[in-house]
């Protein structure tokens, strides 16, 4: 009896349409703060963080007007510097940076945007991280003061 039920179950399973897992669609973040909240910037892999930050910043800022983009960037805690305007190019490039440090890592974000006729034309974004030691540094391994100043001291000698 058990064998018959098992064979019947296997036959039904073999004839059933195969279910494939479809990945959940990734929603475009609504703001730069949403990108910040969605990630563990000190611990997730650098390439993933950099990609998510760049894609999110482009998706958010790309369709905006220049003034709305600058407002959104400033509201996310970035400080901007601007290139020089010219009569042929009245919307100078904006390069905006934000830095944050934990005991383990110094993290820096940068957004550069250009505009034409008041509309955002191009957005580039990048993320860098310098952590205690060099294993979690991104994009390059950096030997810096953070490696010595925050590294745990040697273990105490046994008594």
Features:
alpha+beta, 32% helix, 159 residues
| First and last CA, distance | 69 Å
Please give the radius of gyration in angstroms.
25 Å
Q: Low-confidence spans: pLDDT under 50, at least 5 residues?
A: 4-11, 13-25
Name the helix and strand elements from N-terminus to C-terminus, one letter apiece.
Answer: HHHHEEEEH
Q: Specify the structural class.
A: alpha+beta
Biggest sheet strand line-up: 1-2-3-4
* Proportion of residues in helical segments: 25-40%
Helix run count: 5
User: Number of DSSP strands?
Assistant: 4
Instruction: Please state roughly what percent of the residues sit in beta strands, choosing from under 5%, 5-15%, 15-25%, 25-35%, 35-45% or over 45%.
Output: 15-25%
Shape: elongated
Q: Characterize the quaternary organization of these chains.
A: single chain
Main β-sheet description: 4 strands, antiparallel
Count of domain modules: 1
Average pLDDT over all residues: 84
Describe what this molecule looks like in 3D.
The protein is α+β, with helices and mostly antiparallel strands. The chain has one domain (31-149). 32% of the residues lie in helices and 23% in strands. The protein has helices at 2-15, 32-37, 46-61, 66-75, 145-149; strands at 79-82, 94-101, 105-116, 119-131. Strands 1-2-3-4 form a 4-stranded antiparallel β-sheet. The longest helix is centred in the middle third of the chain and has 16 residues, at 46-61. Mean pLDDT is 84; it is low at 4-11 and 13-25.
């Amino acid at each position: 009896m058990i064998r018959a039920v098992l064979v019947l179950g296997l036959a039904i399973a073999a004839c059933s349409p195969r279910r494939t897992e479809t990945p959940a669609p990734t929603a475009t973040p609504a703001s730069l703060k949403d990108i910040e909240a969605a990630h563990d910037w000190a611990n997730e892999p650098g390439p993933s963080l950099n990609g998510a930050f760049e894609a999110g910043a482009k998706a958010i800022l790309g369709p905006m007007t220049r003034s709305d983009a600058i407002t959104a960037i400033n509201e996310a805690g970035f400080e901007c510097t601007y290139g020089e305007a010219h009569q042929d190019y009245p919307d100078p490039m904006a390069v905006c940076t934000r830095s944050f440090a934990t005991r383990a890592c110094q993290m820096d974000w940068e957004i550069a945007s250009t505009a034409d006729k008041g509309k955002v034309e191009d957005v580039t974004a990048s993320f860098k991280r310098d952590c205690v030691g060099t294993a979690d540094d991104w994009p390059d391994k950096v030997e810096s003061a953070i490696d010595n100043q925050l590294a745990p001291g040697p273990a105490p000698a046994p008594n």
